[in-house]
Design goal:
The complex is a heterodimer of chains A (116) and B (135). Chain A is an all-alpha fold. The longest helix of chain B has 32 residues. Chain B is mainly α and 135 residues long. The N and C termini of chain B lie far apart (64 Å). Chain B has a single domain, classed as Up-down Bundle (3 helical TM bundles of succinate and fumarate reductases). At the A-B interface, helix 1, helix 2, helix 3 and helix 4 of A face helix 2, helix 3 and helix 4 of B.
Chain lengths: 116, 135
C-alpha cells in the first residue's frame, strides 16, 4: 500500500469504527436506562449471550483501531523526537492490545457455564 | 510597502508572537470543539485499561461485580465517571458533527459555528444531567 493509500485507509477506518462505537454504546446505554441497573446474574447472562459476546469483542477491536489512529495523530503533532514517539506508540499499542485480550478473556470465561 | 511587510515577517531574529496563555487565547466555538475532541479522546484512551479491568472484574464473580459497584460509588469513582461521561458525550457529539461536515452538511460559517456551540454546550448539559441523576 502506498503512503497516501495508508492515510486514506486510516481516515476511512476512523469513521467506520466511530459509527460502530457510537451505535453499540448508545444501544447499551439505552438498555441500561430502560431496564435499570442490572444485578450480577442478569449482567453476566447478558454478556454470556453469543451474539452479545461477538458484538462486544467487535466493540473492543473497534476501540483498539480507533484509539490507535487517534493517539498516533496526537503523537505525530506533539511528540517530535522520533525515538520518543516510537516509544509512545509502542506503549500505546501494548496497552490497547493487552486491554483487548483482557476483555476477550473475560467474555470467554463469562460464556462458560460453572465458572462463577 | 507590502514587500517590506513580507520581509519583516521573514526576519527570524524578531521574536515570533506567541499566545500560549490559555486565558488570553480566544478560540472560536469550532476551535474549542476541536481541541476538546482531542482532549476527550486522549482521556478515554487513558481510561481504556482501567475500564477493561473493571469490566472483566464485574463479569468474573458476584464479589467482583459488587467490588466494581463499590469502586464506582466512591468519590474517586464518581469523579472518574463524571470525567468519562463528559469525554464520551463531547467526543460523540463532536464526532457526529465531524461526519456531517465530511458529508458537506453545515459547512457554512454561521451553521458550523452554531453546531460547534451545540456540541460544546450539549456535552456539558449531558454531564450535568448525569450528575443530577446520580445524586
Amino acid at each position: 500500500m502506498s503512503r497516501a493509500a495508508e492515510g486514506l485507509g486510516g481516515w476511512l477506518l476512523q469513521r467506520f469504527t466511530a459509527v460502530y462505537l457510537a451505535v453499540y454504546l448508545l444501544a447499551v446505554v439505552a438498555r441500561l436506562l430502560i431496564q435499570g441497573t442490572p444485578g450480577y446474574a442478569e449482567w453476566r447472562t447478558w454478556f454470556a449471550l453469543p451474539w452479545m459476546g461477538v458484538l462486544t469483542v467487535m466493540f473492543a477491536i473497534a476501540v483498539l483501531l480507533h484509539a490507535w489512529i487517534g493517539v498516533r495523530e496526537v503523537l505525530i503533532d506533539y511528540v517530535h523526537p522520533v525515538w520518543l514517539r516510537l516509544v509512545c506508540m509502542a506503549v500505546t499499542g501494548l496497552v490497547l492490545l493487552g486491554s483487548l485480550l483482557w476483555v476477550v478473556r473475560a467474555l470467554t470465561l463469562a460464556a462458560m457455564p460453572g465458572t462463577a | 510597502m507590502k514587500a517590506q511587510r513580507v520581509l519583516d515577517s521573514m526576519d527570524r531574529h524578531k521574536p515570533a508572537p506567541k499566545y500560549l496563555n490559555l486565558l488570553q487565547i480566544k478560540l472560536p466555538p469550532g476551535g474549542i470543539a476541536s481541541v476538546a475532541h482531542r482532549i476527550s479522546g486522549v482521556l478515554m484512551f487513558l481510561a481504556v485499561p482501567l475500564v477493561a479491568w473493571l469490566f472483566a472484574l464485574s463479569l468474573q464473580s458476584e464479589q467482583g461485580f459488587h467490588a466494581v459497584r463499590a469502586q464506582l460509588a466512591s468519590l474517586p469513582g464518581r469523579l472518574l465517571m463524571l470525567v468519562l461521561v463528559w469525554a464520551l458525550s463531547h467526543h460523540l457529539l463532536a464526532g457526529i458533527r465531524h461526519l456531517l461536515l465530511d458529508m458537506e452538511i453545515g459547512l457554512e460559517k454561521s451553521r458550523a459555528r452554531a453546531s460547534a456551540w451545540v456540541v460544546n454546550v450539549g456535552a456539558l448539559l449531558v454531564t450535568a444531567l448525569y450528575l443530577w441523576a446520580s445524586l
